[in-house]
Amino acid sequence: MEHILIVDDEADLRQIVRFNLEREGFGVSEAASGEEALRLLRAEGAARPDVVLLDVMMEGMSGFDVARQMQQSPALAQIPIIFLTALGAEDDVVRGLNIGAYDYLSKPVGERELIARVRAVLRRSSAPAADALAFESLKIDAASKIASIDGRPIELTHTEFGLLCLLLENRGRLFSRDELLERVWPSDTYVLPRTVDVYITRLRKKLGRYGAQIKTRVGFGYIFE
């Protein structure tokens, strides 16, 4: 049974979302603040949720801050995040996606759309990949979703990990921005094409000496050489 963590300081909203998710067969847990969510996620022996539904505007720690702290932890960085928030301006959406969220939904959201988005993220995060990929000392373990260089894990978000897997598995193949959006980002997610450039820049930085292997073909796209 897939498990969803709802993080929102509005009890009524948590109750409604929980009801809809449980009716669809999901396991559900709740946190009323960002601080509580991180305590649950970091608790020793705690089961990791398959998706985190995360509000942005909460008292204390914002959802953006929670997401950043999750991305800084190798144990939490691979948990898909869907922002569910009243902040629906384009800048807010881009900011949330750039932090590493899989999807961004503006309140109010219909029950059917919410369930569809959750299922789409679950399909994307569990998509099969090669068991192991490597380029010199850059290695990817798809089963554990860990990338490493010289045996040291790299802190990658879900999207960054997906980009690296796609480029490394298809080394020598050129991908346009649109192809990368289609292959890596969830369907029905609003993402500007230039967002791909932001993720590539971040991925290059995290890959250190291997970042230079991701080449830009101006006007065409990106390739791992």
Q: Secondary-structure map with pairings?
A:
Elements: E1 3-7, H1 11-23, E2 27-31, H2 34-42, E3 51-54, H3 63-71, E4 81-85, H4 90-99, E5 103-106, H5 111-125, E6 132-135, E7 138-141, E8 146-149, E9 152-154, H6 158-169, E10 174-175, H7 177-184, H8 193-206, E11 214-217, E12 221-224
Parallel strand pairs: 1-2, 1-3, 3-4, 4-5
Antiparallel strand pairs: 6-7, 7-8, 8-9, 10-12, 11-12
Structural domain tally: 2
User: Which strand order spans the largest sheet, edge to edge or round the barrel?
Assistant: 2-1-3-4-5
Largest sheet: 5 strands, parallel
| Rg | 17 Å
How many individual β-strands? 12
Reported by name, the CATH topology of the largest domain is Rossmann fold
Q: Given the C-alpha coordinates, what overall shape results?
A: globular
Please tell me the overall pLDDT.
86
Question: How much of the polypeptide forms β-strand, as a percent range?
Answer: 15-25%
Helical coverage, percent range: 40-55%
Order of helices and strands: EHEHEHEHEHEEEEHEHHEE
Q: Work out the helix count.
A: 8
CATH architecture of the largest domain: 3-Layer(aba) Sandwich
What is the rounded distance between the termini? 40 Å
Instruction: Find the structural class using helix and strand composition.
Output: alpha/beta
- Which regions have little confidence, pLDDT < 50, spanning 5+ residues? none
CATH superfamily of the largest domain: Response regulator
The CATH C-level class name of the largest domain: Alpha Beta
